[in-house]
């Protein structure tokens, strides 16, 4: 049981310069007994309102250096404070505020909402067990207008999809990775590096791009690029929900439409998912 959607903004000041972290926190506990479920005995139950207040107090006392560190702080607090807690799990996602720039100059206290992928993390711990940290990015919308196709696929009497060697590749990406047992990582640096790897693998070199023969191959390229470039990542899950575009037929309007005007196909949409990990970690 626990408390979901604990939303708040943490303001940090350094002189005249302000820093903000707005987050949504979900914290769940499992107790060492289940008397509250079986017998209606609530003597060991930490009220969900108390859980909420603890999260807010920790934000006040510790600040939010990184999402991951704040999740670790929450887990460690419940494990060290309450002997009846057998397991704790915390999920945190960040509201994407970015500092406002005016003529290239960063503003000291103004921000803009820039939803260019939502950062999130999870931390979980069993009593007498390791504290495990996950992190990720979701709702990252990606598009490239060429260097993508889909050919040579299986066909039968139900197949109507034509082969294409030049199409728009568009999707909304969810990516979640595991650090394994928690260590003293620079979580901000790693998260930014992984986001950079996602964009590099999706788009290819800026002057020419890189051909994608399928959404599945693109998903695998993203995972391989991250595992090669970021040694702290042990297992990575990627889901790419596809958005397809159809070329508008303008013959009746007396025009030739050479893939210049397209409309998105809202539903149904395709989805590709894959989980990939280091062999040494998976065998452990």
Protein described:
The protein has six helices and twelve strands. The strands form three sheets. It has an eight-stranded antiparallel sheet with strand order 1-2-3-6-7-8-9-12. The protein has a two-stranded antiparallel ribbon with strand order 4-5. The chain has 284 residues and is an alpha+beta fold. The mean pLDDT is 95. The chain has helices spanning 35-38, 48-62, 67-81, 187-203, 215-229, 279-283; strands at residues 2-14, 17-31, 85-94, 97-102, 105-113, 118-126, 131-144, 169-181, 235-242, 244-247, 262-265, 271-277. The relative contact order is 0.10. The protein has two domains: 1-129, Urate Oxidase (Roll); 143-283, Urate Oxidase (Roll), CATH 3.10.270.10. 5-hydroxyisourate binds at residues 48-49, 150, 167, 216, 242.
Sum this structure up briefly.
With 284 residues, the protein is of the alpha+beta class.
Protein structure class: alpha+beta
Q: Which architecture name of the largest domain does CATH use?
A: Roll
Number of strands: 12
Oligomer: single chain
